[in-house]
Design a protein that fits this description.
The complex is a heterodimer.
Chain A: H1 4-32, H2 36-51, H3 54-65, H4 70-79, H5 89-111, H6 115-123, H7 128-139, H8 141-157, H9 160-166, H10 176-185, H11 192-227
Helix pairs in contact in A: 1-5, 1-8, 1-10, 2-5, 3-5, 3-9, 5-8, 5-9, 6-7, 8-11, 10-11
Chain B: E1 2-11, E2 14-23, E3 26-31, H1 37-45, E4 52-57, E5 60-64, E6 69-70, E7 78-81, H2 93-99, H3 106-119, H4 135-148, E8 153-157, H5 165-182, E9 185-190, H6 193-199, E10 202-207, E11 210-211, E12 215-216, H7 217-222, H8 227-232, E13 237-243, E14 249-251, E15 256-258, E16 267-272, E17 278-279, E18 285-295, E19 299-305, E20 311-317, E21 328-332, E22 339-342
Parallel strand pairs in B: 3-9, 3-10, 7-8, 8-9
Antiparallel strand pairs in B: 1-2, 1-4, 4-5, 5-6, 10-11, 10-12, 13-14, 13-16, 14-15, 16-22, 17-21, 18-19, 18-21, 19-20
Amino acid sequence: MDLFPLWNSLRIAAISAVLVFFLGIAAAYWSSRAPRLVKGLLDVVLTLPLVLPPTVVGYLLILLLGPNQALGALLFRLFGARLLMRWWSAVFAVSVVIFPLMYRTARGAFESFDEDLAAAGRTLGLSERYIFWRIRLPACRQGILAGVVLSFARALGEYGATSMVVGFIPGRTATVATQVAFLWQNDSAPGARQSLLIWVLINLTISAAVLITVNLLEKRGGSRGTAR
Amino acid sequence: MALRVEIEKRLGDFQLRVRFDTERALLALLGASGSGKSVTLRCVAGLMTPDRGRIVLNGRTLYDSEKKINLPPQQRRVGYLFQSCALIPQRSVLQNVELGFHAHPRRQRRALALAQLERFRLEKLADALPRTLSGGERQRCALARTLAAEPEALLLDEPFSALDDYLKWQLELELARTLEDYGGDAILVTHSRDEVCRLAKSVCILNGGRSEPLRSAAEMMTAPGSLAAALLSGCKNLSPVTVQGDGSLLCTDWGWRLPALPVPAGLSHVGIRAHSLRPGPGPLSLNCSLDRAIDNVFSCILMLRTPGGALLRAEWDKTSRIPPVGAPLTVHVAREEILLLTGGEAHD
């Protein structure tokens, strides 16, 4: 059996999670310190992908990045690369869809941070960079970690936006989610039902593993506070 | 060694206008909650920026709105002891104290921090996390960390407010000793007149965002000058006063006519401390009736119904003879113990 969809899903999810880790933290930090009006507006815009149907997100990405569109055409001329229908094109789609998860959990963590800690660091003469990376982030680590795992898990299962942006090319753009859809649509093909069953089992295993990881992290996070 | 502060800041409807000067001593900033004490400290530390004014520490300008100087907190050398202690929760006591030595070379920090822990009797807790410490230990750790950075001025934000009485006293003794060794300028924010009297040389009273001129702690008790200061210094009996045609003072709440006294401009209230009201007739006496007698720990509190209708509070020895409730009772006050006060709100 060809395991390419699994490998493809994992790399897309990993790259997207890393990307969204930095973008989400930056956006969360920025909006948690923004004036109330800006914050409200930012919140709506940045959370929109969470409630939009993924197919709409996919369609908007096609409108933005398609070769006949302004941005897509410009990038095509600059780099000579098509932005859609490559395996890594799914990173755009997945990142947009999972961004709100990271953003919202990280923002919650930042907002519950005790600002006295940062103030104390400043009066002790610690640099702003040290305070952010060595005091603020570690103190918010539990919320941020939860955001990373959740967004990674969601990234693995993303279907709607991915299928719009990269379609389904076996061995090129197929992911776990699009593979399952493909097999179900073509279940009269020889061996399709068995493959479908195996993919379902793989999905269940991965999902369970992620949830167990989250639980372990939460437990360890709870006791780590006292142990370290 | 001197700290000069002269700042204004507007926060919504609240206008802060503070001005004081302190030299090599502990200055108390006394005010009710919401009077701008913490905002003042934050402005001095550089955690907040005033709208206007100047802050000079030992000849170094930390902030000057005219010269457009505003040093970041990192460069001010102003230590801040937070009410919450602000210890980094995921770091041990030793690691927290090491932060105070971050200006030293990396390999020296541990040894310096260990020596500092010993000085503050925290060496046994070096590896403990802040959340496992008692309130007193937490504060010692925060103080050790703050002083490790060798600040030129030390700001103490209500350091005793979250502690129980016994611990408070222990810490107060420790803090007094530490401050003697420290030798720099320090500002203690508090709402307790007892702490002011015991710890501070001078006091700056903050009233609704305005600072009153500095005075000694003793002076605050004998001549508070303003209604706000009298309240903060713990004066229990206050009455509005009107100057009569013959110069005598009528305390309207009590119906008590006091003889002519040299009154300050803007006189609005008279204050008499509970222990200044003594039993028996005298040159300045008032006939009341006993409304209630309450046993306090070491004294007896008497609530007296005055001819004016309001209650006066007197505090007497437990050995004094207390008449039955409802019985007539005459009290007197010494002329020099009458506090003449200028108005609270209108005061400027």
